[in-house]
Design brief:
It is a single chain. By secondary structure, this protein is α+β, with helices and mostly antiparallel strands. The protein contains one helix and four strands, in the order αββββ.
Length: 103
């Protein structure tokens, strides 16, 4: 019994099967990680597309902007006195409205 080393024993079939499962799981995880990274890189835009801005936008007298945003082909300005001003991309005012609670 002392002449038999633990390395001389053949592994049980269950242990060999477990080794194959662990190896397959490792390979699957590595492949999945590579695919996820590749999809993120492929789907990332090269650079953000900025909207076309006009040279100037003329706000009505006494209006100060609180926020400016872009909605499709329009520029939307929210004023400090709760007015919403809608401009075309050429800087022309195309509409305005007063929010509830505004003046």
């Amino acid at each position: 019994m002392s002449d038999m080393m633990p390395s001389d024993q053949t592994p049980l079939p269950e242990v060999r099967f477990l080794k194959v499962l662990v190896t397959a799981l490792t390979a699957t995880m590595i492949l999945g990680l590579i695919i996820i990274v590749a999809l993120i890189v492929i789907r990332m835009p090269d650079k953000a597309v900025m909207p076309v801005l006009p040279e100037t936008i003329a706000l009505p007298e006494g209006v100060s902007p609180a926020a400016i945003t872009f909605a499709g082909e329009r520029i939307v300005v929210l004023s400090a006195d709760d007015r919403v001003l809608v401009y075309a991309t050429d800087g022309r005012l195309i509409g305005q409205t007063v929010l509830a609670g505004g003046q």
